[in-house]
Amino acid sequence: MAKAKEAKIKKTAVKTYHNYIGGEWVKSSSGEWFDNVNPADTTDIVGRFPRSNEDDVNRAVAAAKGAAKKWRLTPAPKRAELLFTLGEILRSNKDEFTRQMTREMGKVLKEAGGDVQEAIDCTYYTAGEGRRLHGFTTPAEMPNKFAMCVRQPVGICGLITPFNFPMAIPSWKLIPALVCGNTVVIKSGEDVPLSTINLVKACEKAGIPKGVVNVVNGFGEAGAALVGHKDVRLISFTGSTTTGAMIAKQCGRENKIVSLEMGGKNAIIVMDDADIDNAVEGSLWGAFGTSGQRCTASSRLVVHKKIYKKFCAKLVEKVKTLRVGNGLDPKTEVGPVIHEDAMQKILGYIHIGEKIDKATLACGGNRLTKGEYAKGWFIEPTVFTDVKPGMRIAQEEIFGPVTCVIPFATLDEAIDIVNGVKYGLSSAIYTQDVNNAFHAMQELYTGICYVNSATIGAEVHLPFGGTKGTGNGHREAGTQVLDIFSEWKSLYIDYSGKLQKAQIDAVEI
């Protein structure tokens, strides 16, 4: 009896959250729930969330449709004022949102704080676009005729977000969609629903009207229903290449607009004239920040043969000192990976690297299970050396705390190695030679390129995205994201008082 009572107390102590549909916090029509678990301690349940189904998605889309006209007709500067207020709310709650993010996702507190800050920066920056949203005027071909173009909202947008940036990535999609006059339905990342809820609660507090922002929690069933809904005009997806390809096919069949941000296999080139210590620090941050769970992670280090041994020795020495642990501990430098499936996939790649690719396992490679690690998904930061460009660990996205060091002899060889994968998101070069830097910037076929820095660290006022298998040509952030969430309308005003046939009625000079 005592044990049963204790179990009941523990169960009721878990906080329950709901979907946000039409301005109301509601349960899922499925009646089912799922637990949001701390990956550093799986006995710690962060919250219980509704497992949404197609009915919930239909309700959310109907709410977005009902709010669409009024929101579209709200002047863009007024929409932007609400978004600026949203930024103020996020800023005032940054510390709380940071801790909650670390608890549900695992990334260390400093990184979680940076994630929330990126959402704040995105909101402030995009709010400024409410007084721009520029079109342009242009001379018409005919006399007494005026020509210009303006932006118009797309309609209802479905936003599907991943686990690794629980507030930054939803904000990258949500805020530009709203400033352009769209209404949205967000399918939150099932591993990190609380951060999305925090963002949406801030929207509610900022006064964004009912139905403009809706969120459904759950798994693939909810995402599939959102992608397939006839009233959803646009899908913006960040996640795996496999899922993205499936979404692209369906959206193509149904003539939906689709924006995809998918995988990466990013590389840092380290030239023989590089500041080695700086390059090692950048490689540590690029490879093991967010436990390597970034689409921009530096999972390949392409190092000049002249300094290869020295670089590897310094890198391995530093990696062995990295403190792995619960992200809530300020001393922790590398947190857990997101869940058991991810951990097993990463360990599988480590096995491939060592046993099949026959690369040298220079350090790491093990799951940590003792003491403070017993209840979480922890993997040692891992470095492979003597790696060849064609090995699987050098070609496939691992998405974990694993990097491989590849030697090269010439800059052009290094560039070929970097470009020789199916992805094209981010690249970097460490060098003191300005000619080499500019040559690399020109020839590296990636959407992002850094000089004397790691492959991670986007800024919200520049376009973010990649080439090849990383995406489908669209960009997030910057003003370029407005081209995803708005469509162009060309306007012609003929005040001549007569019919003028462009390209037919020649103007005499």
Write the layout of secondary structure elements.
Blueprint: H1 2-13, E1 19-21, E2 24-26, E3 33-38, E4 41-50, H2 54-73, H3 76-92, H4 94-105, H5 109-128, E5 136-139, E6 145-153, E7 156-160, H6 168-179, E8 183-187, H7 193-206, E9 213-216, H8 220-228, E10 234-238, H9 241-253, E11 257-261, E12 267-270, H10 276-288, E13 300-304, H11 308-319, H12 340-356, E14 360-363, E15 367-368, E16 378-379, E17 382-385, H13 392-395, E18 402-408, H14 411-419, E19 423-424, E20 426-430, H15 434-443, E21 448-451, E22 467-468, H16 482-485, E23 486-494
Parallel strand pairs: 7-8, 7-10, 8-9, 10-11, 12-13, 12-20, 13-18, 17-18, 20-21
Antiparallel strand pairs: 1-2, 3-4, 5-6, 6-23, 14-17, 15-16, 19-22
Helix pairs in contact: 2-8, 3-5, 3-7, 4-5, 4-7, 5-6, 10-11
Could you describe the 3D structure shown?
The protein has about 500 residues and is an alpha/beta fold. The chain folds into 2 domains: about 10-260 and about 470-490, 3-Layer(aba) Sandwich (Aldehyde Dehydrogenase, Chain A, domain 1), CATH 3.40.605; about 265-450, Aldehyde Dehydrogenase, Chain A, domain 2, CATH 3.40.309.10. The protein is built from 16 helices and 23 strands. The chain has helices at about 1-15, 55-75, 75-90, 95-105, 110-130, 170-180, 195-205, 220-230, 240-255, 275-290, 310-320, 340-355, 390-395, 410-420, 435-445, 480-485; strands spanning about 20, 25, 35-40, 40-50, 135-140, 145-155, 155-160, 185, 215, 235-240, 255-260, 265-270, 300-305, 360-365, 365-370, 380, 380-385, 400-410, 425, 425-430, 450, 465-470, 485-495. The strands form 7 sheets. It has a 7-stranded mixed β-sheet with strand order 14-17-18-13-12-20-21, with helices on both faces. It has a 5-stranded parallel β-sheet with strand order 9-8-7-10-11, with helices on both faces. A 3-stranded antiparallel β-sheet has the order 5-6-23. Strand 8 (about 185), helix 7 and strand 9 (about 215) form a beta-alpha-beta unit. Helix 2 (about 55-75) crosses helix 8 (about 220-230) and helix 3 (about 75-90) crosses helix 7 (about 195-205). It starts with a helix and ends in a 15-residue tail after the last strand.
